[in-house]
UniProtKB/TrEMBL annotation:
Gene Ontology molecular function: any one: guanyl-nucleotide exchange factor activity
Signal peptide coordinates: none
A Gene Ontology term for the protein's cellular component: cytoplasmic vesicle
Gene3D superfamilies assigned to the protein according to its UniProt record, in alphabetical order: 3.40.50.11500
PROSITE patterns: DENN
PANTHER family linked: C-MYC PROMOTER-BINDING PROTEIN, DENN DOMAIN-CONTAINING PROTEIN 4
Top-level taxon in the UniProt lineage: Eukaryota
Domain UDENN stretches: 1-314
Protein name: UDENN domain-containing protein
Amino acid sequence: MYAPKCLVIVSRQDYIDTFRNCLGIIYTVWVENLGVPLETLVGNLVGCVLVPPPGGPQVRFSIGAGDRQALQPPAAPPMPVTHTSVHMLLRLLGIHNSVTLWCAVMSEHKVLLVSLAGARLSAVCRALAALMFPFRYAHVYIPLLPAGLAEVLATPTPFLIGVHSSLKEEVSELLDVIIADLDTGSLHIPPSVNIPRPEGKLLSSLQDSLALVLQPELRSADSAFAPPPPVQSLPQMLDKEIRAVFMRTLAKLLQGYRHCLTIIRIHPSPVLTFHKAGFLGARGLSQCPFAVRLLDSMFFNGLVAERGPPWRPTDIWDDLVLNLPEQLRLESLNSDLELSHIQELAMQLHYNENPNPQIFQQRILRPPEGAESRIHQPPLPTLCAARVQQVIDERAATNNLEKLQAIRLPAPRIIPPAAPPTGAVELTQLLLTNSARRLEVLRSCIAAIFECRYADARKSFPAVLRALRAPNARTALVNDLASRLPTNKHILHHHQFDLIVRYINFCFSLLRSQGLISC
């Protein structure tokens, strides 16, 4: 006997656990024949449940089967809700692979997740998108791709997609896709893909902070008289502490970015520009591929448009950017304060997901163990659309929307610019004193050559020749070529070879004219 057992809820709301509970209640009532019409359950679910907006109160409801449930929206609308998905990401892939995967997403690479469990794929996709905060993922985002749409993986645009492990053999042939196997914890990076990473202290600080959060006993492991091991945080708090570490890393990287914003139009809506070259020069990040790639991304353009205006509601990110320089100064005097600051930020993230301290004991109906394996399953009856609509109309007439509509939104305020961008003197690499704009043109031209965008490279050819008259620009050219050609056996296309040789010949001619080399 054919008995369909697939129940689906389609919604734009982000309450996955509540939807799972409602499906379980409907299934239990159907399998156990509890005497409640399915039309009543579906009608109550669609027409009775008032979904509170972000920042709204907790809403308690029942769909008519003796259940008790609650919807709790986050306190701040822009902040992502992760529950324990970020902790799951670090548990499945480890610190090194997780940081590498985060760098790949932040630098707009194609990322593919593979697992036998669809729940893992959805949770890890959610976690990677949340670790980008305050940025928003702006490319193709499909937590679970159906097998019939596998051709989507051939798109030339960046994506973050999850697929079932049954497609592992098919996706292994993709040459420019980073594949993370969540079941084995492995990460496959094709040879043709170069993932930029934060350089120097920023990357090591990120990894050390993650190790300190996940393994707090490391701080006293070498002590002669080690104290008792610290109590491990719950997965919900570990999740927020990991997010706090990544948020602090991005705040360190973008320190002083508001000083490089310029308002070019106020009415009808603010339009701002960001002085990228000035920011990179002031921070000493001109040679950091990760920072350059991030500032060129769609994510950063969205950040400038969303958080650039100086008069708007604020959230945890704005407070972090304002207070981080003082926190770093105190941490330089006492390293034990780092974990305290991380935990303080984690508590703010936890409160955002759980703004109501009152504990509500939910009651969810569940089928008895082994109910799904019964031989004789009752057939799912056809629902009466008229009865469902009648229940919806009855509930809609008694709903009180005034409480939800009377929510006061956060008041806007002036955003302080915080500390100016600094850090160029801290780097040990060669500081380029040439015009930042000319160096940016030089790097863009070299990138266009190696990306086979020859028309763009030829357009900037005269400007690059003028920039190469400065010694530091020639040094930048040599360093850029050395980073892109790690061996002396690299094969160049004809147009690539022609343009690079013309640059090198021009540099030699300048050196000969200055008497620095002989013919």
